[in-house]
Amino acid sequence: MTLPILYSLRHCPFAMRARLAIFKSQQAVELRDVKLCNKPTSMLKASPKGTVPILLVSPSQVIDESLDVMLWCLGESDPDNLLLSGIVERCDLLAFIDIFDREFKPCLERYKCAKRYHETNLEACRHHCEVYIQNLERRLRQHAFIMGEYESLADIAILPFIRQFAKVERQWYVQSSYKHIKRWLNAYLQSAMFNKVMTQYAIWEEGSEPVIFCAS
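Structure (tokenized):
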């Protein structure tokens, strides 16, 4: 049986969360790590916009948005009930993720740029991010995971972005009062799942030996 093909990039947060969902769904894919400065022809043929992740389920089914990849994976297999079926409405899960995708992510990019280019508005950019971080801290103060006592799609969807936030001003973050976010984030970063998801593979080229990515 031919496996789905995932075009990915190790440190891209969108590609990272697609791999997290694949791991959690306990499915297997053929993983093709690529360089965006040298995009394979087959990748561009599958999705001309040329961004990762791209999941080629079959020649006639291509999924090239990270959240859609996650939903497809968990729709196929969700052993840990990350979609919280029977617990939380799907629309509430997606609404929370949407806020981080549409609002927090642009704030995070401005914060990263301010740090990288030594801009004078670094603190202001951090404060804009903290509006969302404080909301997350309140949630995690009340329960173990974002939506409640059970892990969900929301946790693994925003994980790569919270990881980036924590790395911008590392010393400031370590000394911050966000102890519940630190607990939540550290548990993921120290997990076998994250280690697997962040494994470095050789860059894929036409004719490369297949790399099979799965939880086992």
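The chain has two domains: 5-81+194-213, 90-193. The chain has a mean pLDDT of 97.
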